[in-house]
């Protein structure tokens, strides 16, 4: 079982112009640095796991965002890199997000299972 | 009847760059207003004074393996410089950075366009504007 559980709960805070979610990006960097890490998406951050997102088109003052964030593929890349990405099941249903809308590599967890998930990790980083 | 060229909106911002989606929305509102001929006054308070810092620089993305050129990372200062081009004359973009907020952050090196001011400017802007939009930190 991984040592660190990194919890992301905010979505789309300055993400468009940043081109990445700051904590998903940080988690990937830490994984690349050798960390044993899992990620839990909860609250509004569960939307990161919805496939087919398109954040292109931002243009402010004639300055176009040429490389928009691709959060769903970033989540898949995390999973491919060996990071288990958990999503709170009830937070998905509360937002009307169905199973067929989720990208690959997601592990759903019920709220009732969170305490065990926390306990199974050495450290919990709640961003 | 007020024409769009006589209208103006005041927007107060508090969040620093890349920390809040509301800042992105505010910049889009400024863009839309200027394109409609509506002048825009901005009062940048607390962390928002960093939005216009000249030294903002693009960076590569080591997770995706992209170079600076491929990543083409935008900066809030670059977006706002574009807004100053849109609001060069009529409509006009006025941008005031709270001077005390600038001092406590050492954030005095800006792109061309903003000027130093204080809370009195927000009050004056609000008195002179068609409407005022306050976007605080949450």
Chain-wise SSE layout:
The complex is a heterodimer of chains A (127) and B (138).
Chain A (H helix, E strand, L loop, with lengths): L3 E5 L6 H4 L3 H11 L4 E5 L17 E2 L2 E2 L6 H10 L3 E5 H6 L11 E4 L4 H6 L3 E4 L1
Parallel strand pairs in A: 1-2, 1-7, 2-5, 5-6
Antiparallel strand pairs in A: 3-4
Chain B lengths: L7 E6 L7 H15 L3 E6 L23 H4 L4 H11 L6 E6 H7 L9 E3 L1 H10 L2 E5 L3
Helix pairs in contact in B: 1-3
Describe the protein's architecture and organization:
With 127 residues, chain A is of the alpha/beta class. Chain A has helices at 15-18, 22-32, 71-80, 89-94, 114-119, and strands at residues 4-8, 37-41, 59-60, 63-64, 84-88, 106-109, 123-126. A five-stranded parallel beta sheet of chain A has the order 6-5-2-1-7. Chain A has a two-stranded antiparallel ribbon with strand order 3-4. In chain A, helix 2 runs parallel beside helix 3 (71-80). The longest helix of chain A has 11 residues, at 22-32. Chain B has 138 residues and is α/β, with parallel strands linked by helices. In chain B, strand 3 (93-98), helix 4 and strand 4 form a beta-alpha-beta unit. In chain B, helix 1 (21-35) runs parallel beside helix 3 (76-86). The model of chain B has no long low-confidence stretch (mean pLDDT 93). The A-B interface holds A 12-20, 22, 25, 28-29, 32, 58-63, 65-67, 74, 77 and B 15, 17-21, 23-24, 27-28, 30-31, 34, 61-63, 66, 70-76, 78-86.
Task: Please state roughly what percent of the residues of chain A sit in beta strands, choosing from under 5%, 5-15%, 15-25%, 25-35%, 35-45% or over 45%.
Answer: 15-25%
List the quaternary state of the chains: heterodimer
Low-confidence stretches of chain A: none
- Return the average pLDDT of chain A rounded to an integer: 93
Largest interface: A-B, 25 and 33 residues
Number of strands of chain B: 5
Shape designation of chain A:
globular
């Amino acid at each position: 079982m991984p040592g660190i559980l990194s919890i992301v709960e905010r979505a789309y805070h300055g993400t468009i112009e940043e081109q990445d979610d700051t904590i998903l990006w940080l988690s990937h960097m830490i994984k690349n640095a050798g960390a044993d890490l899992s990620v839990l998406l909860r609250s509004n951050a569960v939307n990161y796991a919805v496939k087919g997102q398109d954040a292109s088109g931002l243009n402010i003052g004639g300055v176009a965002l040429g490389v928009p964030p691709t959060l769903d593929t970033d989540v898949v890349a995390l999973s491919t890199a060996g990071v288990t990405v958990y999503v709170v099941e009830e937070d998905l249903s509360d937002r009307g997000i169905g199973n067929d809308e989720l990208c690959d590599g997601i592990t759903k967890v019920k709220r009732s299972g969170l305490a065990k998930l926390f306990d199974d990790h050495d450290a919990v980083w709640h961003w | 009847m007020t024409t769009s060229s006589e209208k103006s909106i005041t927007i107060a911002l508090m969040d620093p760059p890349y920390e809040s989606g509301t800042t992105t929305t505010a910049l889009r509102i400024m863009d839309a207003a200027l394109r409609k001929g509506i002048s825009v006054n901005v009062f940048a308070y607390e962390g928002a004074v960093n939005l216009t810092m000249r030294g903002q620089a693009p960076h590569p993305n080591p997770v995706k393996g992209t170079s600076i050129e491929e990543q083409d990372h935008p900066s809030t200062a670059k977006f706002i410089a574009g807004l100053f081009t849109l609001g060069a004359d009529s409509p006009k973009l006025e941008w005031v950075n709270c001077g005390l907020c600038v001092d406590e952050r050492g954030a005095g090196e800006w792109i061309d366009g903003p000027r130093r001011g204080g809370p009195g400017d927000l009050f004056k802007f609000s008195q002179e504007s068609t409407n005022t939009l306050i976007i605080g930190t949450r």
